[in-house]
Structure formats: C-alpha cells, structure tokens
C-alpha cells in the first residue's frame, strides 16, 4: 500500500496510483472544524498566531482520519496583513478577514510593506511547517498562498481594483508584479521550510468576475509568473479557481500548475471533458459536508471519482460547524472502493 505522500506524488506526476488521494490543502480551503478543535483542545483563533498550535491542529486533521495531508495556514489573510492590512483574527467559527485596507489605488502600491518572512504571521507559518517536517513523515505538507488577484484585492478596495485593471492598466500591471514578487518570496520560504506542495487559491480571480480577457491578462499571467518563480517543488503545485469554468477552460488549461482544483459549481465531468490531460482535484460540496449526512457525502465522493477527479477534496473551505463524521466520510469512502 502506498503512503499518503507516495500516493499524492504519483498522482501529481500523472502516474497510476492505488486509489484517488484525499486532501484538503489549507489556506482558503480550510480543513479545521469546531468539533475537531474541541476533540484535540487546540483552537482558533489562537492557532493562527502560534506555530506549535498551528502544527498540532494540522496534525489532528490527519490523525483523526479527515484528510491525507497537513496544510497551513488556516486562512488567506497572512500576505495582506504582512503588507500592512489590518486583520480581524476571527473566532472559532469565523475565519480571519481584512477590516482596513492599506492603499486606495493600484498606483499607490509602493506604500505597501514587502513581505518579511522572518517576522509576523509569515514566520509563524514557516515555523509550523518546520515543526511538521521535523516531527512527521510519509504525510505530504501543503503550504498555501493566496493568489495574486485575491491578494491584490485584499490590500485595497476590490471594486476599485477591478475598475483600475482597465482604467489604469499599466499601473495595474506594475502593482500585480509587486504583489506576485511578495507571494514568490513567501512561497519559496515555505518550500525551504519543508513544504512538499504549494497550493495557490485565487477566489477573486475568476472568469465570472474578470471575464475571459482580463482573466487571462491578470489571473493566468500572474499565477503563472508565481508558479514559474518558485524553486523546484518537491512534489508540485495546486491551483484552485472559484466560479464557473465554462467561459475560460482554454485559459485555465494554460495555468502551469501540476493540479487544477475547482469548486462545486463546476461539474467534474464537464471539467474532465475540457481538460483531458490535466490532473484534476475536487469537489465534494461543502454545503453537503455541513448539512447533509455521511451517506450523501459518500455518494458525492463516488460521483467525483466516477466523473474524473484524480484527487478528492472539499469544493472550498469547510464550514466550521461541519460534523466531523461527515468530513471523515470522504476518506472512508475512498478506502472502501
């Protein structure tokens, strides 16, 4: 039998494996629930700022039979905070979110602080990865980055940002280059600390929001710049894009990641038809994980496998109230196949 790391590595390389892998990367795709925290007595929001607690909570996700990986951090605000945004750290139920932007226009990006991986929550994430690397083996460690468009829309008002992609196109590209450079520095540091995989989630960089033209010009361009700027990863990269893919399958296929991940609005059968040669990940409904039962979750899991998903995962971040038994049902189902 393959170890979780061996299985995921083979799948990410496009090779045959004994069964689909079952992972939840972290970052935007949070895998922690309130019930899990109560079981292990390690809680958010404390684990957002404490490397030991962050690592222990990541370990618990694997130890309790939820997913076959570790993943940190548990939110998508680290990069924005390090660049100067004010972040509310949330509660056991609500994830951290930006409450004060840093700049008012793309042309003001020089006011942003460069990400310093030796301090703040960036350092917490890196220290947690080091702990996981030192204390565990055979389980893949997934480091997470917020995608370029989503990060750019987290340090300034996103509606203004979207408008300025067109109205201040040259300045917008300069801004995106700066943002991508910061993400590159953080991603490279995560790999150096011990991350086996880097997952990039860009929920604001969708074809629905940007349209095909700007999706390709800004989302695909800067995701690829980020991917190409990382040193050789141990296992590879995952990119998660939210929203409908039907208008932008051609553009999505140009993303340089090893794996493409989609949320539940994308029929996996449709994705497989358009992306025949790609390794696909997804996309068990997080609504079902929170509000349905184990049998429904298993039915959805079997559907993902049948329709062409190579790596089974929740379609988005878990709702904090999701029953632990429902979350565990995905992996339990895969082991039954």
Q: Can you give a write-up of this model?
A:
The strands form three sheets. This protein has a six-stranded parallel beta sheet with strand order 2-5-6-7-8-9. It has a two-stranded parallel ribbon with strand order 1-10. Strands 3-4 form a two-stranded antiparallel ribbon. A hairpin with an 8-residue loop joins β3 and β4. The protein contains 14 helices and ten strands. It has one domain: TIM Barrel (Alpha-Beta Barrel), CATH 3.20.20. With 337 residues, it is of the alpha/beta class.
Which short descriptors sum up this protein?
alpha/beta; TIM Barrel; two-stranded parallel ribbon; 14 helices; 46% helix
Q: In the CATH scheme, what's the topology name? A: TIM Barrel
**What is the CATH architecture assignment?**
Alpha-Beta Barrel
Structural class: alpha/beta
**What does the overall shape look like?**
globular
- The largest sheet has its strands arranged as 2-5-6-7-8-9
H and E order: HEHHEHEEHEHHHEHEHEHEHHEH
What is the level 1 CATH name?
Alpha Beta
Mean pLDDT: 96
Beta fraction of the residues? 5-15%
Instruction: Give the % helix.
Output: 40-55%
How many separate structural domains?
1
| Rounded Rg | 19 Å
Q: What is the makeup of the main sheet?
A: 6 strands, parallel
Spans of 5+ residues with little confidence (pLDDT < 50)?
none
Terminal residue distance: 14 Å
The number of distinct β-strands equals 10
Count, helices: 14
């Amino acid at each position: 039998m393959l170890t979780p790391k061996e299985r995921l590595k083979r799948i990410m390389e496009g090779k045959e494996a004994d069964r689909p892998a079952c992972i939840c990367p972290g970052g935007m795709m949070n895998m922690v629930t309130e019930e899990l925290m109560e079981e292990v007595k390690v809680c958010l929001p404390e684990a957002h700022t404490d490397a030991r607690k962050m690592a222990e909570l990541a370990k618990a996700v694997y130890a309790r039979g939820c997913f076959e990986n570790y993943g940190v951090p548990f939110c998508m605000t680290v990069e924005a905070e390090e660049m100067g945004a004010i972040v509310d750290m949330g509660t056991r139920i609500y994830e951290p979110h930006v409450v004060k932007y840093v700049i008012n226009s793309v042309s003001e990006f020089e006011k942003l602080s460069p990400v310093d991986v030796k301090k703040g929550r960036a350092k917490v994430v890196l220290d947690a990865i080091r702990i996981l690397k030192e204390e565990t083996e055979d389980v893949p460690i997934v480091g997470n980055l917020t995608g370029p468009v989503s990060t750019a829309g987290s340090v300034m008002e996103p509606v203004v940002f979207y408008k300025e992609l067109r109205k201040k196109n040259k300045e917008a590209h300069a801004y995106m280059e700066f943002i991508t450079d910061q993400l590159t520095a953080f991603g490279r540091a995560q790999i150096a600390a011990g991350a086996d995989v880097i997952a990039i989630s860009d929920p604001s960089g969708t074809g629905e929001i940007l349209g095909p033209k700007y999706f390709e010009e800004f989302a695909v361009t800067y995701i690829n710049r980020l991917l190409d700027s990382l040193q050789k990863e141990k296992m590879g990269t995952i990119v998660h894009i939210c929203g409908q893919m039907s208008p932008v399958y051609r553009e999505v296929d140009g993303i340089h990641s090893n794996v493409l991940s989609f949320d539940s609005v994308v029929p996996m059968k449709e994705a497989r038809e358009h992306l025949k040669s790609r390794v696909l990940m997804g996309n068990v409904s997080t609504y079902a994980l929170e509000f349905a039962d184990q049998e429904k979750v298993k039915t959805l899991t079997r559907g993902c496998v049948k329709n062409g998903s190579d790596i089974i995962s929740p379609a988005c971040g878990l709702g904090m109230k999701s029953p632990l038994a429902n979350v565990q049902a995905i992996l339990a189902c895969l082991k039954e196949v």
